[in-house]
Amino acid sequence: MSEDRIIRFMRFRRGMAIFSALVVLIGVVALFTKGLNLGLDFTGGTSIELRFAQAAQQSQVSNALAKAGIGEAVVQYLGDANSIQVRLPPQPGEAAQVGKHIAEIVSTPGNQARVMQIDSVGSQVGDELYAQSLLAVGVSLAMMMLYVAMRYRFKFAVGAVISLFHDVLFTVGMFALFGLPFDLTVLAAVLALIGYSLNDTVVVFDRIRENFRKLRRADPVEIVDISLTETLRRTIMTVATVVLVVLSLLFLGGPALHWFSIALLIGLFAGTYSSIYIATSYALSMGLSKEDFIVTVKRAEDDLP
């Protein structure tokens, strides 16, 4: 590859490292100060989907619930102004009766509401799901690190896991910062992003290993730049294809896949970025060299006494 066609990615690695640290720090601060807007799957309670005859005002629905003495209700639109979701803490009585009662409270003479769907989750089940979700993310990251360490070198494995942590904290931090609903579908998106990001990173690592063995006279930074340039087209095509699918889910998948799609879009950006500037930059900072890829061939005479 000619010199003028090589993109010098690593020239900006220090600035990108500072940018990444700031973004992750903002996300972590948001997690500890604001916390996640946990969905019904984790908190427990009742979710009621209401359909109004005419467009309804979110503030009016909230005020009606507050006047009726129903506190801690979360009211949000579902797709259009006629559909509203009301999330409540665990309520006494059967879910159907609770839904009917809420519909009567928020209805007005000129705009009646009817219950479309009711979901109910116990608080104990929600706590168990939350703990199991954290365990699932932790086990996934540990297994990814073990896989990369066995396939490459430990410095690659640490860089890969740091990039995965970056992707998870970036995505989850954005949900905490902007107060977006975090439920099981978003968790599924985060787990999917871990696999996607690692796959993208492994492709880059494979090319770096090949070029270290092929380009004997180039220095490590140059080899990494060449490898990233050679895989750039594949990365762009892969990301573009996945983004088209995710956008289809976002606009055509309905409310059930809305936040799942948003999480994937955020994570796709973070995963592509981290494969270039997190995983490989860490390996370089740990002294990546040709010796890491030299295959030692043991001669038969070495075993002789």
Short note summarizing the structure:
By secondary structure, the chain is of the alpha+beta class. The chain is 63% helix and 11% strand.
Overall domain count: 2
Low-confidence stretches: none
CATH topology of the largest domain: Multidrug efflux transporter AcrB transmembrane fold
CATH class of the largest domain: Mainly Alpha
SSE order, one letter for each helix or strand: HEHEHEEHEHHEHHHH
**What would you give as the CATH superfamily of the largest domain?**
Multidrug efflux transporter AcrB transmembrane domain
- Overall mean pLDDT: 83
Task: Please provide a written account of the structure.
Helix content is 63%, strand content 11%. With 305 residues, the chain is α+β, with helices and mostly antiparallel strands. It has a 4-stranded antiparallel beta sheet. The chain has a two-stranded parallel sheet with strand order 1-6. The radius of gyration is 25 Å and the shape is elongated. 32% of the residues are buried.
